[in-house]
Amino acid sequence: MRFDAAVLRSYESPFAVEEVILNAGPAEGEILVRIAGCGMCRTDLAVRHSAGRSPLPAVLGHEGAGVVVETGGPDTGLSIGDHVVLGFDSCGHCRTCMGAAPAYCDSFASLNLFGGRTEHAARFRDAAGGELAPRWFGQSSFAEYAMVPARNAVRVDPSLPLELLGPLGCGFLTGAGAVVNSFGVGPGDTLAVFGTGAVGLAAVMAATAAGAVTVAVDRFPERLALAEWFGAIPLRAGSAGLADRIQVRTDGGAQYALDTTGSAPLINDALRALRPTGHLGLVARLRAALPLEPGALDRGRRISHICEGDAVPRLLIPRLTGLWQAGRFPFDQLIRKYPLVDINEAERDCDAGRVVKPVLVP
Questions:
Q1: How confident is the model at residue 303, as a pLDDT?
Q2: Which H or E run contains 325?
Q3: Residue 84's closest CA among 63, 53, 56, 100?
Q4: Which site among 8, 133, 174, 338 is 20 to 30 Å from 301 CA-CA?
Q5: Domains in the chain, CATH or no CATH each
Q6: What are the tens digits of pLDDT across the range 280-303?
């Protein structure tokens, strides 16, 4: 089978939309999906800074949504014509997977980032016969088609705008999942969100839907305006007395804080803004040591890393689409669509902050 995909051939080069070859149909437990749209996530772009750990050349993309066009065997639980959102890969049988925590799969890094399923490489080649890396996050969905494990696909209502749903599989899942799963935010709770990109704004929307009082912190006025429109109190990052101002706005301190920036000064601001027993969650990967101020974790405060919103995608994605249908999680307001051939323009706009969530449409 031949189709177009965006191939990244080196860490410095632009994406090249070219013909690729999939030389086998779905194996048992797999499905072939015609991609309707795929979000561009910061993790896709971080491959350029991965110090050679993610194998290239590769087709990236891990926020895909599309239609099932072929299934591998009768036990996939899906049928041809089903509309699906694609999630991250996991082994399905380690202790954390069996404990309903697939984002902490023992093989998560290998399967999603570093080409753990090497048996897939021989099935995926460029038009000249050159081998492409095994599928990225179980998807490689910057393409017209993707071959994925059926357990990573979540069936959705066919009346939904399928081309917009892909980011529910990662970026929006992460922000919203941190609020509803990691924190369990409810009515009257207080939350401070640091960084209002796709993950942070998804957290703001989920917290507003839950009835929480939310403060959003960013340095870009246009992002803060979006956060305010979604129901948050906007505060400028770097402003004097930021933690004290958050404590005033949250009546003595936030019970929860979510940092999406990886910035050590903002992380310390977040800890200072917490009330006793408060919980700070980090979703960005730290690239340097994190010095904590004395007393930062006193009085029951704690800090943890959150991966993929602690989500079981088959549970959370339908919840989010239901909230969208009710007008309470308007994630579509964050999306700008680009043709797949304009993937490099989408990357530039994403890097420059001109768009919150690019979605590539084959």
A1: 96
A2: helix 313-325
A3: 63
A4: 174
A5: 2-169+330-361 (3.90.180.10), 175-308 (3.40.50.720)
A6: 999 998 878 889 888 889 999 999
